[in-house]
Amino acid sequence: MKKQVPLNKAKWLVEPGCVVLVTSGTMQKPNVMTFSWQTPVNSADPCLILLAISHLRYSYDLIRQNRQLVINVPGQELLEQVHFIGQVSGRKIDKFKETGLTPIPAKTVEPPLIKECAGHLECKVVEIFKMQTHDLLICKVVRAEAEPELFAGRWIPEKFRTLHYLGGNKYGVLERTTEARGTNNGHGNSLTRVCL
């Protein structure tokens, strides 16, 4: 069973830039889309995630209807499903049925969670910035949860390998944790400290 993640730690469910599966719609008519254009833009109170989505996507039509979505974090074991979902439109097929993934009810939003994913961020879209071909969605995380044996304030790559899109059908995986020799003042890495 997954354990709730404090909202001030929720951004670490999608760092560092992993591929995610975004669910939209409702439990009765769910859809899922592979996403790699996402980033945390505010880490706490509220935790905000930015998604860039094409105007043409069926998922975007569904998201505009209720302004809700779930960011689901798949691991390496779901590579084939992740890739397939990114290649087809939910307008024409039921991606859950085709991939064997299981939609389950979220606690606070209408779109479902994906049972097979290790982490979930339930989101409400609070602002949309119109762009030329893609819009930028600012999503407020209202609930987050993850498998506790795989996530301890951040993903444990020795136990859970996030996918990172490299183009075409190529993906990278995060396999191990390394630690810098310097001190950690709570602001992240040394590059972050220089920019503050």
Write a structural description.
This protein is mostly beta strands and 196 residues long. The chain has one domain (3-195): Roll (Pnp Oxidase, Chain A), CATH 2.30.110.10. The protein is built from four helices and twelve strands; from the N terminus they run βββββαβααββββββα. The strands form three sheets. Strands 1, 2, 3, 4, 5, 6, 9 and 10 form an eight-stranded antiparallel sheet that branches. A two-stranded antiparallel ribbon has the order 7-8. Strands 11-12 form a two-stranded antiparallel ribbon. The radius of gyration is 16 Å and the shape is globular. It starts with a strand and ends with a helix. The relative contact order is 0.21.
Distance between the first and last residues' Cα: 38 Å
Helix/strand class: mainly beta
Q: How many H/I helical runs?
A: 4
CATH architecture descriptor text: Roll
Portion in helices: 10-25%
CATH-derived topology: Pnp Oxidase, Chain A
CATH level-4 homologous superfamily: Electron Transport, Fmn-binding Protein, Chain A
- Which regions contain 5 or more consecutive residues with pLDDT less than 50? 189-196
* CATH class value: Mainly Beta
Whole-number average pLDDT? 90
Give a short synopsis of this structure.
The protein is mainly β. The protein has helices at residues 58-66, 79-85, 95-99, 190-195, and strands spanning 3-4, 20-25, 30-35, 38-42, 48-54, 68-73, 103-104, 113-114, 119-129, 134-146, 163-167, 170-173.
Please supply descriptive tags for the structure shown above.
4 helices; Pnp Oxidase, Chain A; mainly beta; two-stranded antiparallel sheet; 12 strands; 8-stranded antiparallel beta sheet; disordered C terminus; 196 residues
